[in-house]
Design brief:
- The complex is a heterodimer of chains A (159) and B (291).
- Chain A is an alpha+beta fold and 159 residues long.
- In chain A, α2 packs across α5.
- Chain A is globular.
- The chains are: A alpha+beta (159), B alpha+beta (291).
- The interface between A and B is medium-sized, with 32 and 27 residues.
Chain lengths: 159, 291
């Protein structure tokens, strides 16, 4: 079977790639485009490690076909920091020690970015419900919640 | 070896033609909307390569209309999109609370309630809520469209009434009249991302304090979600007093034929479905009074 040719915007850049009809977006990012920041945890949409934004909407890359990204704008963890440095969320995850092994971290940061775009000042309950689809087996979540709160504060009152 | 193929037609006639072409060469078609069930199933054992037909490029499946004439929710419209729709929040709070119970933020970004319906799990949360809200399936066929009430669409565990060559275009729902509200409650051991032990969807209409119409549907307590007319009959003509609620709860219990599994015994599920029924009625009643 011939591979499919797809063109999509990845982190602001137009990319063309070839993929199989049944290849997930996660496998396309990691294996075809070399963007290995997006992690595979469960591969069944339970853990959120592969969270990406598709036209601004938070989704699991493991539950989307690569071919479905045609014509869409995809944002991954690699697109979060800008030329001036880390995103406030990335900085606050470091400041709060909100990660240990790190496998869940890209997913948490992408999911938290989507949260802060929708709710710039979320309370703890809102954060916990929004991030219920991101599993972390190291931190116990408290530090992650604090990192998101600190990033929200920093983003609404830039120093 | 046979491999997967992918097509995303942009007209219904093209989609229906592809279904029929695939069938004529003995190739299985997999309809793809949100994909949150399909992609997991594709990785399961026993799943054979097939022709994937993505229905998200169709105008019809992307329709989301809320007007006095009625409501239409296309089969490609994600839960996240319907949950953000303010008109729907006012018109069908129960259907939206059911959709909002399914999966994480990530899942809701892709999943569709029509997919939840087609997947036909006994515990599909949106299905009792759809039945309570009198939703009707708008089905594309080789010759046009046909309609089927949601309570007749699911025919068994994982089985729906779609015939070869058909797919679900969307749901048609009546716009609730003033004095009509819905509610959906389920019980799960965990508050987020769990599978229902039991669920109840209700829609009530009140005129001057008296219930003039009701629909009650139960989920996760039988092979398919079920409409329970006996529960509705217990409510109509009453002022929704405690006895009426208790009678409706007992009717749900009688209509349930649950299994025992790790989430709960059959006996427990029957007890819980009666409790949920009473609480869902009280919630819908509150919503009517609050309006």
């Amino acid at each position: 079977m011939a591979r499919l040719q797809v063109e999509s915007t990845i982190n602001g850049e137009t990319k063309e790639f070839l993929c199989d009809a049944d290849q997930s977006m996660l496998d396309v990012l990691r294996d075809e485009l070399g963007l290995t920041g997006t992690k595979e945890g469960c591969g069944t949409g339970d853990c959120g490690a592969c969270s990406i934004l598709v036209d601004g909407r938070l989704v699991c890359a493991c539950l989307m076909l690569g071919v479905e990204s045609g014509g869409k704008s995809i944002e991954t963890i690699e697109g979060i920091a800008d030329k001036d440095g880390l995103h406030p969320l990335q900085r606050q995850f470091l400041e709060n020690a909100a990660l240990q092994c790190g496998i869940c971290t890209p997913g948490f940061i992408v999911a938290s970015k989507a949260l802060l775009e929708k709710h710039p000042n979320p309370d703890e309950e809102t954060i916990r419900y929004w991030l219920a689809g991101n599993l972390c087996r190291c931190t116990g979540y408290d530090k992650i919640i604090r990192a998101v709160q600190d990033a929200a504060a920093e983003m609404s009152h830039p120093a | 070896m046979e491999s997967y193929s992918y097509a995303a037609p942009n007209s219904v006639s093209e989609a229906v033609a592809l279904l029929s072409d695939n069938a004529s060469i003995g190739r299985q078609t997999q309809i793809l909307a949100g994909g949150t069930d399909v992609l997991v199933q594709m990785r399961g054992s026993g799943h054979t390569p097939r022709a994937i037909l993505d229905i998200k490029a169709l105008v019809e499946t992307n329709r989301l209309e809320v007007s006095a004439e009625g409501i239409y929710i296309g089969s490609a419209v994600s839960s996240a999109v319907i949950n953000e729709n303010q008109q729907l929040q006012e018109a069908l709070p129960g259907l939206l609370e059911a959709a909002d119970l399914i999966g994480s933020t990530q899942i809701q970004g892709r999943a569709t309630i029509c997919g939840n319906l087609c997947n036909a799990s006994p515990a599909g949360d949106s299905i009792p809520a759809m039945i309570a809200a009198s939703a009707v399936c708008d089905i594309a066929t080789a010759t046009g469209t046909r309609e089927l009430p949601v309570e007749e669409f699911v025919v068994g565990v994982g089985q729906n009434a779609l015939q070869p060559g058909e797919f679900l275009l969307g749901l048609k729902l009546p716009m609730p009249t003033p004095g009509t509200k819905d509610a959906y409650l389920r019980f799960t051991p965990r508050t987020e991302m769990d599978i229902a032990v039991a669920g109840v969807g209700v829609s009530l209409t009140l005129k001057e304090g008296v219930c003039t119409a009701a629909r009650v549907a139960i989920g996760a307590v039988a092979p398919t979600a079920r409409l329970v007319p006996e529960a509705a009959n217990a409510l109509v003509g009453t002022d929704l007093n405690d006895q009426a609620l208790a009678d409706a709860g007992e009717a749900c219990k009688a209509a349930a034929s649950p299994i025992s599994d790790k989430r709960g015994t059959a006996q427990y599920r029957k007890k819980v479905v009666a409790v949920l029924c009473r609480r869902a009625i009280a919630l819908a009643h509150q919503r009517i009074q609050g309006a």
